[in-house]
Specification:
Number of domains: 1
Number of strands: 4
Strand content: 35-45%
Structural class: mainly beta
Distance between the termini: 38 Å
Oligomer: single chain
Number of helices: 0
Helix content: under 10%
Strand order of the largest sheet: 1-2-3-4
């Protein structure tokens, strides 16, 4: 089987993803360990470090 989709980038967070939201070219990612990250292609900003407190929803 031939795939026509090619990954452009990938990112990792400290635990499993609990919430996602996007605005324009930015993707906001929340993780079960409390990490909140903004991702734009290969640029990544950590807005909140993992502290063991799950973030279950987000919006921006």
């Amino acid at each position: 089987m031939v795939s026509f989709l090619k990954p452009l980038w990938q990112a990792a967070v400290s635990d499993y993803v609990t919430a996602l939201d996007w605005r324009g070219d930015w993707l906001a990612i929340a993780a079960a360990a409390g990490e909140v990250r903004l991702q734009q292609a290969e640029q990544s900003l950590v807005l909140r470090a993992a502290d063991g407190q799950s973030i279950d929803c987000l919006q921006f």
